[in-house]
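One-letter codes give the sequence; the integers encode the fold. A sample entry reads:
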Amino acid sequence: MRSYECRPRFGFFKFAVLAMLVLLSLCSCFSKGKNVDPADRFIQELSRKDPAVRWNAATALGAMKDARAVDALIAALRDEDFTVRSAAAVALGKIRDARAVESLSVALKDENFSVRKDAADALVNIGSPAVGTLINSLKDKDASVRNGAADALARIGSPSVEPLIATLNEEDPSLRSGAADSLGRIGDSRAVAPLIAALKDEDHGVRRSVADALVRIGSPSIEPLIAALKDKDTAVRTEVMEALGRIRDARVVAPLISALKDKKYIVRSGAADALGKIGDARAVEPLIAVLKDQDPSIRSGAADALGKIGDARAVAPLVAALRDENYGVRKNALDALAKIGRPAVAPLVAALKDKNPSLRRSGAAALGKIRDTRAVDALIAVRKDEDPSVRNEAAGALGRMIEPLIASLKDKDPSVRESAAGALVRIGSPALDPLIVSLKDKDPSVRSGVVDALAGIGAPAARPLIAALKDKDSFAKSGYVDALSGIGAPAVKPLIAALQEIDPSVRSGAAEALGKIRDVRDVAPLIALLKDRDATVRGGAAEALGKIRDGRAVEPLIALLRDRATTVRSRAAESLGVIRDGRAIEALVALLKDSEVTVRGRAAAALGKIGDARAVEPLMTAMRDKDPSVRRNVSDAFVSIGSPAVGAMIAALKDKDPSVRAAAAGVLGKIRDDRAVNPLIEALTDRDQSVAGNAADALAGIGAPAVVPLMDDLKDRRATVRAAAAEVLGRIRDARAVEPLMAALRDKDPSVHGNAADSLAAIGAPAVDTLIAVLQDSDPLVRSGTAEALGKIGDPRAVEPLTDALRDKNPFVRSAAAAALGKIRDTRAVETLIDALVDRDASVRRNAAGALGAIGDARAVGPLVAALKDKEILVRRNAEDAFVSIGAPAVAPLLEALQDGNASVRNGASTALGKMVARWIEMLRNEKATLRREASDNLADVGAPAVEPLIAALKDKDQSVRSGAADALGKIGDLADSPLLAALKSENLEVIAGAYAIFIRRGAPGSEDLLVKALDKYGKRTPGMAQDFLDSGNALLAAAAKQWLLKNGPVPPAQTASGGNPRWGIR
């Protein structure tokens, strides 16, 4: 026979073609009339040379199920092509003729897996006639044949049971073992008694297979197995206990406990092992008693079982067992204590003080396995034990504590983190390597705790950390540096020594750490390091010297400003700024012309920190630097220099360059010197907006000293100056400006009187009485500006004067008064504002409608409905929005307005209701249940116009929205029926789930199936749905809910009640 690969040579496409050929062949055969026998033709084709034709013939014969083909198909099981052999096996399985059994059994040895599989399947299809042959195959030397036969027998099932039981008595042990295996796979209870009898088999392999079979059969085996515990044969009792331990049924605990007293040690051992596997707490006390058994293997097994059960009652006896003379007992007791874990810690800690060194050693070992950090201090104390083996065990245990302690550094509780760090400090040197590795942890709390721990360990940590500075990971390196600086003075000498290391990363890291420690002993070595051949090292040394702030470093740092490396010059300049020594001024001024932006910027910043007036003039030049970052640093430098820079900055306000002027104004605002007030006021008129804006900000920052000059400028002939002055006075908010600003309300320039009104509003309460008085001014422009200001202030004292102003002859005043009253929101204004809804001026009517909406008083509803007829669209829009603000009291009048004869009224009412519905649906998301209920009630009051938006809301992602929408629809009642029934007919499960309570109350016949589907799809996101189904009074819904809850578990209760539990058909 030729060798073939297991995978088919024909691809899927070829098989599809061949399948079509089979059908075509069958059709062609039958189409040729009665003279052609299709079976004969295909039998003949099994001998053709082409394997595809042979495969086609075998497949066709299988489809025909003609018994005449059996012999030919049996012959085809030996075909050289595995696909043909496989097809022959399949065909024989379909024909189910007993003659094929023996040949199919031989095919179980086929070299090709698919042939073996198809032969096994065929034997299963043949069924009972194949059982004997398959049983005989159980003793085959080839494991694949045995497995195939056993699997086939198991799949045949019940017909195989009696023959297999009989086979348990065959002479061949492999046959008996295979029979037991098959019986276990079948799981028929008839096999239990014979299998238990077979536990006496002389062959250990057979007994093992029998035990496995009984375990597979499971529950039906238990009672017979329990009875077999009384068998006289020790081997039987042993195997029984092993099986019972694997089945792990609570019923076997008591018999197994009794077996702990068996005379045979192997039985007692098996009982202990089984009880450990079952893990039932009832076995704890009996197993504790067995710890005193004469046989060490029994004691050992009992300790192991107690560890598996994990009951705290076993701790003390197990600690005592650590003294046992037998190593196996001690080891299992130790392992058991480790499994029990936390409850064992205190007794084990106590054991560390025992006189017996063996017990102390075992206690330390057990604590190391448990890894409970509460034992750290006790183990640290044991490191001084007189016995070296105890000391070694304690050291190992402490080593195993380090990882959980480092993990505790992530704890949210700061006291836990602090305790863990302290424990690591006490462990000391053994914790160094893991701690240093942990400095790479991305969790900042871990890194912080590690740094604290290393700092606490102190000097012993310095050298390992210095060695770690070679790490190329900058993230980790920063952690090493932090730890070294945390160690402080004890790390100085090793760090100074590290400045001579060959690796530049070590030298630079050491310099950085020394800079953070700030020890004066570091200065001379760091100054020497300024000449290092590596630029990174030189820069690090410069930065470190800046942090130490020692005057000895000034001259060397000045010299470093000429370094060829940009970063070195930059760091040297920065450090000179930190030291703040005037000797560096000239060198830093020269650096303002450096070719590198960062260097120029650092030089400017350093000059600012030194604060010497000599730097002002050079910095003035640097204000024109082409780089904005340099210019920002220059501005900040002037602010730091302060008063000596004011004159130069005032002069700079007239510079040709607007960026210089803007920067100067900004600087003066931060310095806040009175001398700058008038120049800054002049700069308010600068043609460059950034200059004018910065000048205004500066004056506002200067505050009170600028008020009088600004008040004077309210009379300036230039409107731009007056407007700017009015605006800045509002930002300063000084009461002295009220009168001048009142006068400015008469200014003809709109920007002036507008800014004056805004500023008076900003000044607030101190301006109210004066503003009220000015409402009587003869100038309408002043009166309107005053009304606007009073509205912005929002003081209730202005309500009556503003109400009077609604009757002003000037429409601008009336309009401003209406808007102002809307901002104050006082109900005293309602009646007058209602009258204003029919004002002859549209802007007055518009603002009156808006104000009534802002106040939200129900008295306005009727007049606002009338306002929906207004010829001006903006008046109508404000009226619509007013209804939304008024809320529920507007619903009924608006619903009535939907029937109005005026189309404008109907449209306005419809639009307003739509806006109100949208607002209330959004309110259903509110966290406050009272607001959600209010929104639901309001939506219900709207009725029919709210139905469609509410149905859409049933699909919202937010459960509170869906629930509220369902509540509202339920309250709307019959008006919602038609759209909801439409959702039912269209099988819209999302809507059905949202409104399930309504559908339950409707009780529509036949709707149960859709409700169940809705539960399956949306039950998890609909709290209370399953429970309501259970309590609905509908058997179908209740049954579905039970199944759903079994599958999905309990869900949170509904947060929004749907008027109590819905009952089927009860509205």
